[in-house]
Amino acid sequence: MTSAGSDRSRETPVKDVSGRPAGEAVTASARPRPPRFLRPPVVPSGVGAAGRHAGLATALLLLVLVGLITKPDHFATSSNIVSILSLAATIGVITVGMTFVIIGGGIDLSVGAVMALASVWATTVATQSHGPAMMAVCAVLVGTGAGLINGLLIAYGRMVPFIATLAMLVAARGLAQRISDRRTQLIRPENNAIEALSTTRVLGLPLLVYLFAAVVVVGWLVLNRTTFGRRTFAVGGNPEAARLAGIDVRRHTLLLYTLSGLCCGIAAIIIMARTTTGSSTHGDLYELDAIAAVIIGGTLLSGGRGTLVGSILGLLIFTVITNLFILNGLDTSDQLIAKGVIIVIAVLLQRRGLRTAAVT
Amino acid sequence: MSPPDPPPLLHMRGIVKQFPGVRALDGVDLQVRRGEVHCLLGQNGAGKSTLIKVLSGAHRPDAGEILIDGRPVRLPTPDAAMKAGIATIYQELDLVDGLSVAENLFLGHERARCGFLRRAETDRAARDLLTRLGHPEISPTCEAGRLSPAEQQVVSMARALTRNARVLVMDEPSAALAHDEVDNLFRIIREMTAAGVAVIYISHRLEEIRRIGDRVTVLKDGRTAAAGLPADDTPTERLISLMTGRDVEYVFPPRPARPADGPEVLRVEGLTLPGRFADISFSVRAGEIVGLAGLVGAGRSEILETIYGRRRPSSGRVLLEGRPVRPGSTETAVRLGMGLAPEERKSQALLLDQSVTANITLAALPRYASAGWLDRRRERAAALEQIAALDIRPADPRRPVRTLSGGNQQKVVLARWLVQGRRLLLLDEPTRGVDVGARAELYALIRRLADDGVAVLLVSSEVPEVLGLADRVLVIREGRLVHQAPAVELDEHRVLNLIMEGSAA
Questions:
Q1: Which of A244, A252, A255 to mutate: most B Cβ within 10 Å?
Q2: B392 and which of B109, B133, B387, B435 could share a cystine (Cβ 3.0–4.6 Å)?
Q3: CATH number, position A189
Q4: Which residues contact B191 (CB under 8 A, 6 or more apart)?
């Protein structure tokens, strides 16, 4: 009697797959080879998250080497490192939220615009009169509120995430322009506690870098160590199965977009600290950078699979590339071309890793 | 048996098809003459679908040959089958909703010049064809998605004609049709056979077979049980006998000596979902396995899904341990102690890329968490316990579920509900795609659960399975509960009769 198990031990030379003795494979090989689609999938050994992270880390290391070689006296300076990390911090916080949304099977195009709106709302004359703490709270509330609206439209209004968040992108940008009257709003001197996030340094790094690190750590813990994180994978990977397992998929979806909005609010605080302004032009195309970072990090755009560490590595790769181009005085157009090529290469490499697992 | 001079239009000889763990076809013979309606009859699992897939080029047979007009042909792909003149109309109609009727008719062999579609000519050809089929009212320019199911079926048949099909395979064509539409279907079939086309007609409705069929071939256990019986005067009795008595290779666990007298766990009162089922009432006791028998499409799965809250009934109610259950909420169902092993394991139950552990604990995550924080050691221990209890192989809690066999995947689905005590388990085709050895294990497991006091409601298309496993059997026909009795008072013959009789147009 042919069983699936003995077929497996014959077809795939991977050891420890079935634990069956080799003798059985000999008898089985007398049978005709089953057609390809019937053969059990090859178990991807070591092409998991760890392998992908190692690949990304290697790429990042190579880029750092390029920096050290081409601009030895500029790249490794503390001011350059601070500038790389500060830039990464803004998009990075957004990327954390984006990773949750994409693993949960969605997409959030509104992140850059929502961040701009939050920065503008937090720097109006009225808000600034309440002091820096209220400005921060305001930014977070505006971001979370916008995310909540996204979530309501998608989860309960049954809108396609792409469309709902595209509408939010346009509308939030417009609202930011209206509130600020298209002017850049400076943070007043009495509120420069906000700016302190950027100017105060601990161990040589500005506070906002620690804020970014904290968001990443909390995000990682939530994604990997809580029921919320586990359900995010379930909702993104197989919403029907999640629903039949008793998970409230709609409520979870709502929470995912709200979380993304919250991250945009925090990012708004960081960009206010870095630029001492609130402006409707902040965060232009950040959504594309964040999505690219998530994809380079190995998260499936269709949901259900991905890692936060990958996203952060993907983001750092992007940021270092930008930095290298600036240091070497190269054209920003070339920089965009390079980024596009990197996205394609990263996805192609991951496709090869996944294909073995995806055959059924 | 066939007259010696003209060879049959289609002759399938000694067809064998082996799947891992299952021999789906074991030397089937089928002879179809020009211009006849040849009915294929057989229980679920007898091999009808596999045979059709071999004929339509979807499966390659492991042995045997196919002859058309006495000449052997090979059908390695659906395209090859179409070129050989074999067209198949599946139960699920395969029209592209967004394209027009005419575009659907010529999909894949468009009327074109230099890559540009000749729309006027396409529309004219489509109109001619539809008129020939007696449906001039279907506009060639109408979007296919806007047609009624009956109209879509006409278009599917017309599409077969555009390919100059000589053999037309129809799998349960009347399932989607209202009664008066069946008459029209039959009229078209007669016109086509008059033109020399042979029709292979699959249906469980005996009355239809008698009305439209010329000859009947009965399949059982992947073999031809009887070939070329006259469709109009072979007694029902004889047909059902030929279908029954399948070699059931699996072993059922013994039933408890006395019937379950535990408290009533599930009570369903007058449950109705228009178009699916109506006025369904029954109850299931603790420790009892109740089986729903019926044809695919009779409403069995929908009943299960409505009890579980995946669908919302238009009237009637569901009570669990005497308390009404809020309709239309799967969260409530799970919270109150129900568990569902759905029909489509892969698309409805499993997270294929996730580990065995993550799949097992999915519905009970709060049990392994405090304030949302997962205790992964406890989670893993619970998974290991289930892996050992259900003998899930390989016994690796970190393995992605995708790499497990069908039987082990089903065990993972069951384990999901066993990690937390369940009062009621709803099992929809629990052994579909599971090989023979693993079936016996699943049966034993389901019985053990019942012995522990779980109420089990089981749906299966395989009558022997329902009879062998359940304590009590409910027969569902066309959305109505037509009979219920203890399983020991029923036999396969009687149940098949109940399922199939009087269900025709």
A1: A244
A2: B387
A3: 1.10.3470
A4: B132, B133, B134
Does residue A248 belong to any structural domain of this protein?
Answer: yes
- Nearest-CA distance B448 → chain A (Å): 22
Distances (CA, A) of B453 to A327, B122, B262, B290, B320: 72, 64, 8, 13, 14
Those residues whose C-beta lies under 8 Å from the C-beta of residue A316, and which sit 6 or more positions away, are A60, A88
Contact in structure between B7 and B72 (CB atoms under 8 Å): no
Indicate if the alpha-carbon torsion angle B100, B102, B106, B110 is positive or negative.
negative
Distance from CA of A274 to the nearest CA of B (A): 34
Of A3, A237, A243, the CB nearest to B351: A237
**Chain centre distance of CA A213:** 14
- Indicate whether this complex's ipTM tops 0.95: no
Q: Chain B residues with CB inside 8 Å of A245's CB?
A: 334, 349, 362-363, 416
CA atoms within 13 A on the CB side of B314: 8
Q: Which of B19, B353, B375, B405 to substitute to test the interface with A, most A CBs within 10 Å?
A: B353
Restricting to B residues 291-320, those with a Cβ less than 8 Å away from any Cβ of A are: 308, 310
Asked if B335 reaches chain A (Cβ–Cβ under 8 Å), the answer is yes
B49-97: per-residue pLDDT in tens? Answer: 889 999 988 899 999 999 999 899 999 988 888 888 898 887 666 788 8
Q: How far apart are CA B34 and CA B139, in angstroms?
A: 31
Q: Is residue A343 part of a domain?
A: yes
CA angle (B148 as vertex; B43, B150 as ends), nearest 5? 45
Is residue A62 domain-resident? Answer: yes
CB A49 within 8 A of CB A306: no
Residue with tokens 């629903």: A243
Fold topology of B254-337+423-505:
Rossmann fold (3.40.50)
Judge contact between B200 and B167, C-beta under 8 A.
yes
Does residue A46 belong to any structural domain of this protein?
no
Q: What total number of domains does chain A contain?
A: 1
Provide φ and ψ at B194, rounded to 5°: -60, -30
Task: Tell me the shortest Cα–Cα distance from A157 to chain B, in angstroms.
Answer: 18
> Tens digit of pLDDT per residue, chain A (360 long)?
333 333 333 333 333 333 333 333 333 333 444 444 444 433 333 346 777 888 899 999 999 999 999 988 888 898 999 999 999 999 999 999 999 999 999 999 999 999 999 999 999 999 999 999 999 999 999 999 999 999 999 999 999 999 999 999 999 999 999 999 999 999 999 988 999 999 999 998 999 999 999 999 999 999 999 999 999 999 999 999 999 999 999 999 999 999 999 999 999 999 999 999 999 999 999 999 999 999 999 898 889 999 999 999 999 999 999 899 988 888 888 888 988 998 898 888 877 655 444 433
CA–CA separation, A218 and A228 (whole Å) = 13
Q: Which residues of A touch B60 (CB under 8 A)?
A: 35
Q: Which residue has the tokens 């300076």?
A: A77
Neighbour count for residue A46 (Cβ, 10 Å): 8
The DSSP element (H or E) to which B434 belongs, if any, is none
Domain residue limits, chain B = 95-163, 254-337+423-505, 351-420
B347 touches chain A (CB under 8 A): yes
For residues B30 and B52, the answer to whether their CB atoms sit within 8 Å is: no
Q: Where are the beta strands (DSSP E) in A94-224?
A: 185-186, 201-202, 205-206
Question: Is the CA virtual torsion A173, A176, A181, A183 positive or negative?
Answer: negative
